[in-house]
TrEMBL record:
One of its GO terms (biological process) is secondary metabolic process. One of its GO terms (cellular component) is cytosol. Pathway: Secondary metabolite metabolism; quinolate metabolism. Its EC number is 4.1.1.45. It comes from the Bacteria. GO terms for molecular function: aminocarboxymuconate-semialdehyde decarboxylase activity; hydrolase activity; metal ion binding. This is 2-amino-3-carboxymuconate-6-semialdehyde decarboxylase. Keywords: Decarboxylase, Hydrolase, Lyase, Metal-binding, Zinc. It comes from Duganella phyllosphaerae.
Amino acid sequence: MNGANPRIDIHSHFFPRVSQQDAAGYHDGSAPWLQIDDGGATGSIMVGDKAFRPVYQALWDPAFRLEEMDQQGIDIQIACATPVLFGYTWQAAQAADWARRMNDLALEFAAHNPDRLKVMAQVPLQDLELACEEADRAMRSGHVGVQIGNHLGDRDLDDAQLEAFLTHCAHQDIPLFVHPWDMMGGNRMKRWMLPWLVAMPAETQLAILSLILSGAFERIPEKLKICFGHGGGSFAYLLGRVDNAWKHRDIVREDCPRLPSEYVKRFFVDSAVFDPGALRLLVDVMGDDRVMLGSDYPFPLGEQKIGDLVLSSELSLDAKQRILHGNAASFFNLE
């Protein structure tokens, strides 16, 4: 670790160099792939023959990423798949094969500098047995955790199958990072990036409350390591509303034996909230031992100067060190 404030960024994304030919054999030819422009500095994520998102070199080039990490003062960055790679709607066996390929490519990406580049795996979440098998294989192969989406179609994290996967990860000491995807809202949020600005925080809050209010956190072993991206979405800001509802409406507490705010010690969040007041609230709600530096790099909605929000805050030096490094080192077994 370098400097007085070493930094581990736990929330960044990558996309392997998957060509259109590579993707052609999956999901009727509509699997995502990477189109790199002439010159190699920019490109597009493609889904079939449709452009999904413009991207740049840091997403697929580990050497270039390390240059930017040096510029940003980041010691270690943990990368996970761009969620469009999940394949949750595919036939399970094909999704499992795809996940293995993406996870092996992730390790190739990290092999450029394994001390500074770490990766999380993806799994075919639609099949419990295959998901557990791939999670175990990935961890044996060198991944430091598993990233999952916050839901599977209409099934949230309190679904029996998804709860069973979380329980498996608890028993196997597999850290989990939950990322929102396939956002709610449909055509009502078709412009101005509203799915990312409104639905994405709501999806994350929904995932957390699904585990709390269903009683799932009472059934899942307490040793589960689970972190939610984007500062937990709307959760911290609206927790008072949830506690109030639990106190006054029996339908809210019928499956949840304890006040919802008592469950904040069961999970972690990252620091990607972009505002000093929001960070103060997040730390007040979660505690500085439950927040980890996360940037959402290298996307435009990520923190542009990674870690500056924490470093410039009024938090104590000890709290800053926990958020910038200590919590992540323990969570991902990097110590």
